[in-house]
Amino acid sequence: MSDGLRIRLDRTLCDGFGICAKHAPDYFSLDDWGYASLIGDGTVPEKDRDAVMRALLDCPVHAIIYMGEHRPSNDGAAHQDAKEAPEPAPKTDDNEAISEFVR
Fold first, then answer.
1. What is the pLDDT tens value at each position of the chain, 103 positions in all?
2. N or C: which end of the chain has fewer CB within 10 A?
3. What segment(s) does the record annotate as region Disordered (predicted)?
4. The dihedral of CA 28, 30, 36, 37: what is its sign?
């Protein structure tokens, strides 16, 4: 049983389309230039999951990042152990972009 999901907003990716604030205004606000800010700590209860997932999926620049689900522990307290998956290390063998410039 999930206590909700966790998201994060990468403001460096945001291009100010405002779709997130349209779908989930309780979780995203727009500044004077139209760029999004996350309201709260990124914890989304189950009742708001659909609206926030719609915002995440409709973001044209993928600035909203899915961090996983909150799962209750045996003692009933939600643990904050959700972490973003690490980026895979680039393969350096046979990778022209890393080893040298090739035209």
1. 456 899 999 999 999 999 999 999 999 999 999 999 999 999 999 999 999 999 999 999 999 999 988 666 555 555 555 455 555 555 555 555 554 555 5
2. C
3. 70-103
4. negative
Alpha carbon of 59 to those of 31, 33, 49, 69, 70: distances in Å? 17, 17, 15, 20, 22
| Distance from C-alpha of 16 to C-alpha of 11, rounded to nearest angstrom | 9
| Residue type, position 5, single letter | L
Q: How many residues does the chain have?
A: 103
β-strand partners of 70:
4
